[in-house]
Inverse folding.
């Protein structure tokens, strides 16, 4: 069910729809939840293992997502710039994806940050993800300080909110 909702939200994303979707997802000020995901080699890990140590940037993305491709240069650049200070985790949704395809993609495009696979949709559900390209930034205490959707997010300003 969450897959259909996510795809429907993604398919109707217009500037007006983006404004409406800004109220979707988790609220700023809420505690970032844990959720079971898989590493790309198939091990189960909980997102809570990334939360509460350093600020964390979570991006829900897919290889086929145009908005995600638009965000990619920012994610790659910021993950290098803030290495050791901020944890970046890209969460690949399982819609028309496989861990193998994701592995090939991140190798080809030089991802250096953590990438996990949301095989069951647990993370997508826990974060009330309205569509791919949804970004959540939590500070070092795990409090959400930013959520955004779409390809034109100002991610460095969001990262700075988490520091």
């Amino acid at each position: 069910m969450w897959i259909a909702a996510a795809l429907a939200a993604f398919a109707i994303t217009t500037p007006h729809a983006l404004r409406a979707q800004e109220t979707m997802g988790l609220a700023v000020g809420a505690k970032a939840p844990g959720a079971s995901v898989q590493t790309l080699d198939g091990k189960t890990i909980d997102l809570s293992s990334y939360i509460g140590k350093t600020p964390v940037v979570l991006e829900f993305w897919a290889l086929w997502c145009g908005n995600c491709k638009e965000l990619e240069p920012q994610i790659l650049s910021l993950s290098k710039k803030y290495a050791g200070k901020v944890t970046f985790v890209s969460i690949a949704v399982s819609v028309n994806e496989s861990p193998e395809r994701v592995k090939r993609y991140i190798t080809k495009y030089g991802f250096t940050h953590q990438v996990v696979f949301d095989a069951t949709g647990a993370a997508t559900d826990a974060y009330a993800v309205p569509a791919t390209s949804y970004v959540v930034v939590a500070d070092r205490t795990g409090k959400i300080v930013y959520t955004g959707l779409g390809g034109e997010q100002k991610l460095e300003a969001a990262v700075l909110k988490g520091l």
Q: What stands out?
A: The beta strands are 36-39, 44-46, 56-61, 87-93, 114-118, 134-138, 144-148. Residues 1-23 have pLDDT under 50 and may be disordered. The two ends are 35 Å apart (CA to CA). Residues 66-81 form the longest helix (16 residues).
